[in-house]
Each structure stands twice: as structure tokens, then as C-alpha cells.
Amino acid sequence: MIAEPLLLGLLISPTWVSLTISLFSFSLFLLRVPFLRLWKARRMPSPDPQRRLVFIFTAGGGVVAFVTFVASCRLADPFIWLWPFVGAAPMAFGTLVYQDRGKTRHLFPELLAAVAIGAPMSSILLSNDFSWTVALALWGLIACKSVSCIVFVRYQIRRSLQRPAGRGMMFVIHGLLLIPATLLSIYGGLPSITLWVLPLLGIRMGLFAGLPVRSARQVGWIEVGITFVFVICVGLSF
User: Fold this and answer.
1) By C-alpha distance, which of 85, 44, 38, 43 is closest to 58?
2) Which pLDDT value is given to residue 87?
3) Whole-angstrom Cα distance, residue 193 to residue 190?
4) CA–CA dist 133, 44 (Å, integer)
5) Rounded CA gap, 88 and 119, in Å?
6) How far is CA 196 from the centre of its chain?
7) Sequence-ordered alpha helix ranges (H) in 13-131
8) What is the 3-state secondary structure of 146-207?
9) What is the pTM of this model?
10) pLDDT along the chain (238 residues), means of 10
């Protein structure tokens, strides 16, 4: 969810450059859908009846992205804040390839998106003179949290569909994620509250794994609530 890293970056460092980088990131995130639609329309035998509307939306989003990009470059050194986007670009491209093939629900593109999604937050921190250590450590922590949430949500969805869910594997993966998350919190210069993020998610897994099966929408809203609690607690601890 793109809102998590953007809100976290704005909460940690509420500056103008944080706002422009957030708007630039959000516009790029929104542009992926009409861009893919226009790309697919090139291969369709008949023209898309909404092609003009999609093109206008894409053009408008491109203008917003360009303006906020220029503003961000004026407010901060582009050779600093752009590096996280460069690092996330291959993962974002891989996700687009899977979306173009209609395989958005596969595990691999979801994991790619989970790792790439923290790049804007890291960029915001770098633009506000935070160290590379803190920026990359918090990016890594968000990636660990996102992967853990993906595993849990997929487990709950498979339960709701009455398919083999792999409860033991879910806990094994979460346990393995505790190792890098703990190291990043300790050696990355992050607030001590970040040490509790993955353990609390593990407790959540244990509690909900034994409860009656919930719908995908209910699970999604639960994860949204947990995400915003995480953003507020970590953001205010800096």
C-alpha cells in the first residue's frame, strides 16, 4: 500500500520536499494502471472506447509527475533522493510485466511490490539529510513487515476458500523475517519501538490463525488498521 511509506515519510519529516516527493511517487503509482491499459490497447484488434479518457488521465498524471519531480530537484539534491527510485525501478518493472500478463495475484510480483514500495519513504528521508543507514534500514523494515502481511493475508484467503493454507509455513516465514528486522532495528539506528513491529505481527498471526475464517475484505481492513498504527507509532518515535 503506497500510503504507508508516504505517510511515514511525511510524519517523520514534514517538509516541502517531503510533500513534493510524495506527490511525485503517488502520481507514478496511479499512472501504472492507465499506462498498462494504453499499452494493451496497442495489441487489441478493436480500439478501446475509453481510450481518449485514459489518455487524458495519463497525460494529466504525467504533468503532475513532471512538475513535482522538478520541484523536488529544486528543493533537494537529485543525486541523493533519486537513488532509492533507481534501486526500486527493476522491481517495479517486474511487477508491471506480471500485471501486463494478468498475473497480479501471483506471489512473486506481490513480493516485488512489497520491497519496492518503501523506496519513496527512503527517498524522503535522504532528501531531509537523514543518513543512508537510517533510510535503508527503515526501508528494509517496511519490506519485512509487508512480506509478513502478504503471507498472512494469503493464508487467510486460502482458508476462506477452504484450500490448504500452510499454517506452519506462515509462522516459519515470519520467524525468519524476525532476524533481518531485528538486525535492521538495532544496527540501523532506528527507534527502539521498531523492535516490536514483527513480534506484534507474529502475535496477530497466532490470534487470527485460530479464529473463524474471515472474508478477504475483513482481512484487508484489519491489515489497513495495523498499518496505520505502525505508521503513527514509528513516525512519532523519531
Assistant:
1) 38
2) 93
3) 8
4) 47
5) 6
6) 20
7) 16-41, 51-75, 78-81, 83-100, 107-116, 119-127
8) HHHHHHHHHHHHHHHCCCCCCHHHHHHHHHHHHHHHHHHHHHCCCCHHHHHHHHHHHHHHHH
9) 0.87
10) 88 93 92 78 63 79 92 90 93 86 80 91 94 93 88 80 74 84 88 81 70 67 81 85
